Amino acid sequence: MKFFLDTANLDELRTGVSWGIVDGVTTNPTLIAKEGKPFEEHIREICDIVDGDISAEVVETESGPMIRQGRELAKIHKNVVVKCPLTREGIKATSALSGDGIRVNVTLCFSAAQAIIAAKAGAYIVSPFVGRLDDIGFTGMDLIRSITQIYRNYGYATQVLAASLRSPTHVIDSALAGSHIGTMPFKVLDMLFNHPLTDKGLEQFMKDWHKTFQEEPAAR
Length: 220
Ligand code: E4P
Hints:
By secondary structure, this protein is an alpha/beta fold. 53% of the residues lie in helices and 17% in strands. Strands 1-2-3-4-5-6-7-8 form an eight-stranded parallel beta barrel, surrounded by six helices. Helix 6 packs parallel to helix 8. The structure holds erythose-4-phosphate.
């Protein structure tokens, strides 16, 4: 399973990359706006930090301007994946951009029917949002299970990117469901490391080692 960071914060990206476990980045207009820097320049900086797919979202609602913006975004760097919303206009733009050989991540997917549409339009990635479905009383993970099953049934090449992941359990369940990618905030990636037995075990190992080899050097 590929791990993507769902952030536009450069310090978070640098830390994740230093761990060697970040395969790509997803951004959205909210995350980009939070950092307050010019859009294209910011995407370029992200591409300099992370060597992997970097999703940059169009901020248009009509297919014509979306296609034009998507083409411009794709020119920023070879790793840029253009993100289009799962609307009629977004799918029209997805079909056109995919036809041009531009990789598209279809975002804001909330149903299996929408995911089939994204695959048929030639999307490189589809992004079903788990946490936002949980927020309104659905079981978001059921959607990941349905989409991975349907894509397997038909051999669709579109990759399933489990998005809006809010906890380590979401990450594990997405992996069990066969999601190709999981995108998560930095906080969730950081939490994946944690286990109290790791901390306890390491503390004991260090204590035993230092007791023999550092605190009592004369005994050697
Ligand atoms: C994915 O590409 C989205 O940016 C993201 O996962 C949305 O997550 P949220 O629902 O926590 O905002």
